[in-house]
């Protein structure tokens, strides 16, 4: 009988939005977890900061001493504290003590992933982190395992629920930024410090993890170009709408191949306009979706809930079953794969496209002045549209692909033209052929 087998002992570090759901589900379905693992899965301790705040957790399991739990008799440590310290030291101590680790901590993995993977490898234990990117969506396991036989060229994702919630509301109801952020907070989507969500730090951590797995290369948070959504206004949303596009905060991980065949990895997070018929355009609310383009598989789309207690707990528990089963059968999960060692592509030299909306003087020669500036920077124009007359005249330009630095320099010079009153909106364009 499975119930009679030696239990797998699990210690939980942190019991907030996600941890509470993990404990609840383990208590609700013990026979199912035992059957899938091959032995009972028993929580032997839960480290928290304030024990009186956790009436649903059996009192004898609660402790404020996370380090003691890590040093204790647990087989698997589940870290749901978040942030760098003390999570990093606790997980290194766990791995060095021969314990497998499950974590949802993207910030930690993006900053110190290599150190943790090396410690897991050296000690013959597992580190699983499916919940760290796109919450409930099975994504990292497909990248690490199912697609290990393919060559991925591009991963484009909506990987921050909070910012997608805000942008979707701005697009559909014209709701304001602050009120939508408050609601995302209340629903448990936002990080402890929501600037991590709206300034793109959370998505950048996830981009680093995705790029590392997709391109078999170590990509850290510092390699990811990052821009958030706090500068997006109603004018940008409207400009996108008038071109049948919508604005999304995208994490883009791309294999860039130069003319001489040299490969590099571009990892970036920024708002971008995408066509309304792009598969990512219909992803609303706090939902996440990740679009993967691979040489043999072609296009794949992963969609679902990327945030919230229960959805994230689903991914954590999937990892826990895998880690616990490996303890039962003396198996091992996948190791870090970083053999390709591709260099990081600087944003300045990354090929992008811009949408630029200009408030211009309505007089002859404006268009040729603007066009000459593009020419000077070797940027070619894909679409140009003049709208309105007199004081309301505006010029909308969508470029072909060029180096991001050349596009930025073009915009800076255009802003100084006497015939240009204001650069009303500048945004990168993604998801269509140039
Ligand atoms: N909430 C989500 O939707 C979501 C989704 C995916 C991943 N994550 C990740 O999951 C992790 C947990 O997120 P959360 O939303 O549950 O955060 P949370 O802030 O709700 O919970 C963290 C808990 O850890 C406790 N804690 C802090 N320091 C501690 C310590 N030294 N010892 C014991 N407990 C300590 C805090 O008191 C808090 O209760 C984070 O890494 C987060 O990025 C969260
Ligand atoms: N704060 C994150 C949680 C999931 O990682 C989000 O909004 O997507
Ligand atoms: Na996931």
UniProtKB/TrEMBL annotation:
Catalysed conversion reaction: L-homoserine + NADP(+) = L-aspartate 4-semialdehyde + NADPH + H(+); L-homoserine + NAD(+) = L-aspartate 4-semialdehyde + NADH + H(+)
Binding site for NADPH: 106
Enzyme Commission no: 1.1.1.3
Pfam families named among the record's database cross-references: ACT (PF01842), Homoserine_dh (PF00742), NAD_binding_3 (PF03447)
InterPro entries with a match to the protein in the record: ACT-like_dom_sf (IPR045865), ACT_dom (IPR002912), Asp/hSer_DH_NAD-bd (IPR005106), HDH (IPR016204), HDH_cat (IPR001342), HDH_CS (IPR019811), NAD(P)-bd_dom_sf (IPR036291)
Domain called ACT: residue spans: 355-428
Gene Ontology BP annotations: methionine biosynthetic process; threonine biosynthetic process
Cofactor(s) of this protein: a metal cation
SUPFAM superfamilies associated with the record: ACT-like (SSF55021), Glyceraldehyde-3-phosphate dehydrogenase-like, C-terminal domain (SSF55347), NAD(P)-binding Rossmann-fold domains (SSF51735)
UniProt: NADP(+) binding residues: 13-20
Superkingdom: Bacteria
Active site: 206 (proton donor)
Involved pathway(s): Amino-acid biosynthesis; L-threonine biosynthesis; L-threonine from L-aspartate: step 3/5; Amino-acid biosynthesis; L-methionine biosynthesis via de novo pathway; L-homoserine from L-aspartate: step 3/3
Residues that coordinate or bind L-homoserine: 191
The keyword Electron transport is assigned to this record: no
Entry keywords, A to Z: Amino-acid biosynthesis, Methionine biosynthesis, NADP, Oxidoreductase, Sodium, Threonine biosynthesis
Keyword NADP attributed: yes
Family of the protein in this entry: Belongs to the homoserine dehydrogenase family.
Known function: Catalyzes the conversion of L-aspartate-beta-semialdehyde (L-Asa) to L-homoserine (L-Hse), the third step in the biosynthesis of threonine and methionine from aspartate.
Protein name, as recorded: Homoserine dehydrogenase
Species assigned in the record: Actinopolyspora mzabensis
């Amino acid at each position: 009988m499975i119930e009679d087998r030696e239990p797998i002992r699990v210690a939980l570090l942190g019991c907030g939005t996600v941890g509470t759901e993990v404990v609840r589900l383990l208590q609700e379905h013990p026979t199912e977890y035992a059957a899938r693992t091959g032995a009972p899965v028993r929580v032997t301790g839960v480290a928290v900061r304030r024990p009186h705040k956790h009436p649903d957790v059996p009192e004898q399991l609660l402790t404020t001493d996370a380090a003691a739990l890590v040093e204790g008799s647990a087989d698997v440590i589940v870290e749901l504290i978040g942030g760098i310290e003390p999570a990093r030291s606790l997980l290194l101590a766990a791995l060095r003590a021969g314990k497998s680790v499950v974590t949802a901590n993207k910030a930690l993995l993006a900053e110190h992933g290599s150190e943790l993977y090396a410690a897991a490898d050296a000690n013959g234990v597992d580190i699983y982190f499916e919940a760290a990117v796109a919450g409930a969506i099975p994504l990292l396991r497909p990248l690490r395992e199912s697609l290990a036989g393919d060559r991925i060229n591009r991963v484009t994702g909506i990987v921050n629920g909070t910012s997608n919630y805000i942008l979707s509301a701005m697009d559909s109801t014209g709701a304001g930024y602050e009120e939508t952020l408050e609601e995302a907070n209340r629903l448990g989507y936002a990080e402890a410090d929501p600037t991590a969500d709206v300034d793109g730090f959370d998505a950048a951590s996830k981009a680093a993890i995705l790029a590392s797995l997709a391109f078999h290369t170590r990509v850290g948070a510092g390699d990811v170009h990052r821009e958030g959504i706090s500068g997006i206004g109603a004018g940008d949303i409207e400009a996108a709408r008038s071109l049948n596009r919508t604005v999304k905060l995208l994490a883009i991980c791309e294999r860039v191949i130069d003319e001489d065949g040299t490969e590099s990895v571009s990892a970036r997070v920024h708002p971008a306009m995408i066509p309304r018929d792009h598969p990512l355009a219909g992803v609303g609310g706090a939902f996440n979706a990740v679009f993967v383009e691979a040489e043999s598989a072609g296009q794949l789309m992963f969609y679902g809930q990327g945030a919230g207690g229960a959805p994230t707990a689903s991914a954590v528990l999937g990892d826990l079953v895998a880690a616990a089963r490996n303890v039962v059968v003396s198996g091992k999960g996948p190791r870090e794969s970083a053999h390709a060692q591709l260099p990081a592509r600087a944003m300045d030299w990354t090929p992008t496209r811009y949408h630029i909306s200009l408030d211009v003087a309505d007089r002859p020669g404006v268009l040729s002045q603007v066009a000459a500036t593009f020419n000077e920077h070797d940027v070619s124009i894909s679409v140009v549209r003049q709208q309105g007359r007199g004081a309301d005249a505006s010029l909308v330009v969508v470029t072909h692909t060029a180096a991001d630095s050349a596009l930025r320099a073009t915009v800076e010079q255009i802003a100084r033209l006497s015939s240009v009153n204001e650069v009303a909106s500048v945004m990168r364009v993604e998801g269509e052929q140039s």
